Amino acid sequence: MTKPIKKAVFPVAGLGTRFLPATKAIPKELLPVVDRPLIQYAVDEAREAGIEQMIFVTGRGKTAIVEHFDVAYELEDTMSERGKDMSVLNPTRATPGDIITVRQQVPMGLGHAIWCARAIVGEEPFAIFLPDELMIGKPGGTGCMKQMVEAYERVGGNLISVLEVPMEEVPSYGVIDPGAANGALTEVKGLVEKPPLAEAPSNKIVSGRYILQPEVMRTLESQEKGAGGEIQLTDAMAKMIGDQPFHAVTFDGNRYDCGSKLGFVEATLALALEREDMGEDVRAMAQRLLGQKELVSGR
Ligand code: UTP
C-alpha cells in the first residue's frame, strides 16, 4: 500500500529574470493566463489530484501570491451589494489552514527551495508543482498531477513528469536516461541537469511536476551547488535512483513554459482559443491582425 499524496510544495521564490521587467514587482506566479494567475492553475490541478495541503515556498516580494487565496471581505461585500456574480472567486477560496507558507531567504535554487519545506512535509511522500510550467490536460481528460497520482498508486516510489522536445532544446533542461517503458510509464535510470547536446541521454525532459519520497530532503541537506551555481533538485533526485523505484510519466496533454515570454504568449493564445466564451472572437481577432500584418508587409 502506498501512502496517499496529500501535501504539495509550490516553490515560488525564484527571481523570474527571464520575464523582466514584468516580474520586477509582480511575482511571475501571479501573471494571468486569460483570467487566472499561474498559481491558481497549479493549485486547481493539485486539488483535482486529491491534494489537500498547499505549501508555498515564498521569498521577498511574493506575499501577494498568498493573499490571492485570502478571503477579500471588502471586495465580497461590495460585489454582493451590487448583485455581482461571486462564483468567479470560488477557486480562490482555500480551506482554512490548508495554505502554508515557508520562506526561502535567498533564492539558492530549486533544490534549496524544496528543502526549505522539510519540516512541514515531514515523513510523507509529497508532490511538487512548478507553477510557471502550465500543464493543461486534454479536453475530457485529467490534469498532469492526477495522471501521476494514478501511476503512483500502481508503482509507488518517486515519479517525475516528462515530455519529449526537439534534441537541440535538451541542453536547457533536466533530462532522463530512460530504461524500460510500459505505456506512459518509463523507468528512470539516470538524470542530468542541462547536459551538453553530445552528452544528453535522451530528449525526454523533466517538466515541472514531481512525486517524491521524504528521503529527498535528507539528500538535499548535503547537496552541493550544481548547474548555474544553484542547489539543483535534479542532482538530489539522481542520487536516489537505485535506492528507490524511479519512474517518469509522459504527460498526456500540453505544457507551456510560462517562465519565458514566448511560452507565455503561446499559453495565452492556446487557452483563449479553447474558451467557449471567447474562442471564436479570439480566432477572428487573430485572423484580422494577421491580415493587417500581411497588408503592411505587402504579402
Ligand atoms: P526557474 O528556473 O524558472 O527560475 O525556477 P526563476 O528564478 O523563477 O526564473 P528565471 O529563470 O530567473 O527567469 C523554477 C521554479 O523554482 C522556483 C521558481 O519560483 C520557479 O517556480 N525557485 C527557483 C525557487 O523557489 N527558489 C529558487 O531559488 C529558484
Structural summary, described in words:
With 299 residues, the protein is of the alpha/beta class. It contains ten helices and 13 strands. It has two domains: 7-259, Spore Coat Polysaccharide Biosynthesis Protein SpsA, Chain A (Alpha-Beta Complex); 260-299, no CATH class. The protein has helices at residues 38-48, 63-67, 73-81, 110-115, 118-121, 144-155, 215-221, 233-240, 261-274, 279-296, and strands at 7-11, 32-33, 36-37, 53-58, 99-103, 126-129, 133-137, 158-164, 174-182, 185-193, 204-212, 246-250, 253-257. The N and C termini lie far apart (63 Å). Bound molecules: uridine 5'-triphosphate. Residues 11-19, 57, 104, 107-110, 112-113, 130-132, 259 line the site of uridine 5'-triphosphate (UTP).
How many domains comprise the coordinates? 2
In the CATH scheme, what's the topology name of the largest domain?
A: Spore Coat Polysaccharide Biosynthesis Protein SpsA, Chain A
Classify the beta-strand content into a percent band: 15-25%
Q: In terms of per-residue confidence, which ranges show pLDDT below 50 for 5 or more consecutive residues?
A: none
Q: What would you report as the Rg, rounded to the nearest angstrom? A: 20 Å
As laid out across the biggest beta sheet, the strand order is 5-4-1-6-11-8-12-10-9
Main beta sheet? 9 strands, mixed
Bound molecules: uridine 5'-triphosphate
What is the distance, rounded to the nearest whole angstrom, between the alpha carbons of the first and last residues?
63 Å
What is the helix/strand order? EEEHEHHEHHEEHEEEEHHEEHH
Figure out the total of helices: 10
For the residues shown, what is the average pLDDT? 92
Helix coverage percent: 25-40%
Which architecture of the largest domain would the CATH scheme give at its second level?
A: Alpha-Beta Complex
What structural category characterises the helix and strand content? alpha/beta
CATH superfamily of the largest domain: Spore Coat Polysaccharide Biosynthesis Protein SpsA, Chain A
Q: How many individual β-strands? A: 13
